[in-house]
Design a protein that fits this description.
Layout: E1 7-16, E2 19-29, E3 34-38, H1 45-52, E4 60-65, E5 68-69, H2 74-77, E6 81-84, H3 96-106, H4 111-124, H5 140-152, E7 158-162, H6 170-184, E8 190-194, H7 198-204, E9 207-212, E10 215-221, H8 222-226, E11 231-238, H9 244-251, E12 256-262, E13 265-271, H10 274-287, E14 291-296, H11 300-310
Parallel strand pairs: 3-8, 3-9, 6-7, 7-8
Antiparallel strand pairs: 1-2, 1-4, 4-5, 9-10, 11-13, 11-14, 12-13
Helix pairs in contact: 3-4, 4-5, 5-6
C-alpha cells in the first residue's frame, strides 16, 4: 500500500534484455522537499523518472504519485504533476501565451484560469517580455524557461525534472537555476530533480538521493550526507602568509577544534551545524586578516565520488 509520501517508489525494476536499468529500487520523497537525484551515466535516473511519468513501463514493482499508482491510473496519478523530462519540444509557430493556452486546455482549465495562470507563470519564468513572440525565435535557455512554465500550469503539487539545465550556456543555466531557487520557496511544492551537476544540487536542493546500477545508495538531507562525522573542514585563503599568532586566535574561536597551516592556506576543523558555521564565518571576518576565500571540504562531490566508488 502507498504511504503518504508525494512520490513513492516500491521495489521498482526495469530490465532491457539482460541489462537491469533499475534494480528493485525503493525511494520515498518527503513532502515539500527539493530532492536532487544523482548517479553516474547509466545509473537508472532517467529510466526511473520515465516510469514515474508513464513514458515507459516498469518490469515489476510500483510507483505512486500522491498515493495513486502510475501504472493502474496514469491520468489520475499525473493530474497534479508538472514535468520536464528530456529535451522539451514545442510548436515553434506558437507564442508562449498560445502555448500556455494549449496546455491549459489539455488540462481542462477554464479560460479565466488559463489567462490568470499564464500571466503569473510567465512572470515566474521571466518570459513576460517575450509573451507574444514566436517560440521558434527563442534560444535554448528561453525554451527551457517556457518548459518550466508549462510544468507549472494548473499549480501542481509535484514537479519532476530531468537535468533541467543540460545543454544550456552559462547565462541560460543561471537563469534556469534562479527560477528553480524561487520554486524551492514554495512551501506546497515537492520537487524531484535529476542532475549531473553536483554543485547545482548542492545549491538548489535540501535533500539528495544517490543511485548506482539502479539501486539506492543513500537518501537523506544533504547536510547529513556530507557529514561523515561531526567534524567539518573549512579552507581559508589569505592575501598574506598565516602566522602562528593567527592560527592561535582562530583555534580559540567557538566550536573550532583545530587550525593548521597548509602552505599559504589555513585548514580549520570545527564541530557544529549550519548556524555554527555562519558564526564561524562572521568571527573570521572580524579578525580582519585579508581573507578572500572560504570553502568547505567534505563536500557533496567528495561524498558522491566515494559512494560511487564503493558501489562498483
Amino acid at each position: 500500500m502507498p504511504s503518504d509520501s508525494p512520490i513513492e517508489i516500491v521495489d521498482l525494476r526495469r530490465e532491457y534484455g539482460q541489462f537491469v536499468a533499475v534494480n528493485n529500487l525503493d525511494l520515498n520523497i518527503r513532502k515539500n522537499s527539493f530532492t536532487g537525484f544523482l548517479g553516474p551515466n547509466g545509473a537508472g535516473k532517467s529510466t526511473t523518472l520515465k516510469i514515474l511519468t508513464h513514458l515507459i513501463n516498469a518490469t515489476s514493482g510500483n510507483a505512486y504519485l500522491n498515493g495513486v499508482d502510475v501504472v493502474k491510473d496514469p491520468k489520475e496519478a499525473l493530474s497534479n504533476v508538472g514535468t520536464v523530462v528530456e529535451t522539451p519540444e514545442f510548436y515553434t509557430y506558437l507564442t508562449p501565451i498560445e502555448t500556455m493556452k494549449y496546455i491549459g486546455e489539455i488540462l481542462g482549465m477554464s479560460h479565466e484560469a488559463i489567462k490568470s495562470e499564464t500571466d503569473i507563470i510567465l512572470e515566474k519564468v521571466k518570459m513576460t517580455e517575450w509573451a507574444d513572440k514566436r517560440i521558434g525565435t527563442f534560444s535554448k535557455g528561453m525554451r527551457q524557461r517556457i518548459a518550466l512554465g508549462q510544468a507549472l500550469m494548473n499549480s501542481p503539487s509535484i514537479i519532476i525534472l530531468d537535468e533541467p539545465t543540460s545543454g544550456l550556456d552559462p547565462r541560460g543555466m543561471a537563469e534556469t537555476r534562479e527560477i528553480l531557487k524561487n520554486l524551492r520557496n514554495e512551501k506546497s511544492l515537492t520537487v524531484l530533480m535529476s542532475s549531473h551537476l553536483l554543485y547545482e544540487v548542492g545549491d538548489l536542493c535540501d535533500r539528495v538521493a544517490i543511485i548506482n546500477h539502479g539501486a539506492l545508495l543513500v537518501h537523506d538531507d544533504i547536510d547529513n550526507v556530507i557529514k561523515t562525522d561531526d567534524t567539518r573542514r573549512i579552507t581559508v585563503k589569505l592575501n598574506g602568509t598565516p602566522t602562528q599568532d593567527l592560527l592561535g586566535r582562530i583555534s580559540a574561536l567557538q566550536n573550532v577544534v583545530s587550525a593548521e597551516r597548509l602552505g599559504n592556506d589555513i585548514e580549520i576543523r570545527f564541530k557544529g551545524d549550519a548556524n555554527a558555521k555562519a558564526k564561524l564565518f562572521s568571527d573570521l571576518g572580524l579578525l580582519n586578516v585579508g581573507i578572500y576565500e572560504l570553502s568547505e571540504q567534505g563536500t557533496l562531490e567528495t561524498t558522491y565520488l566515494n559512494l560511487i566508488a564503493e558501489s562498483r
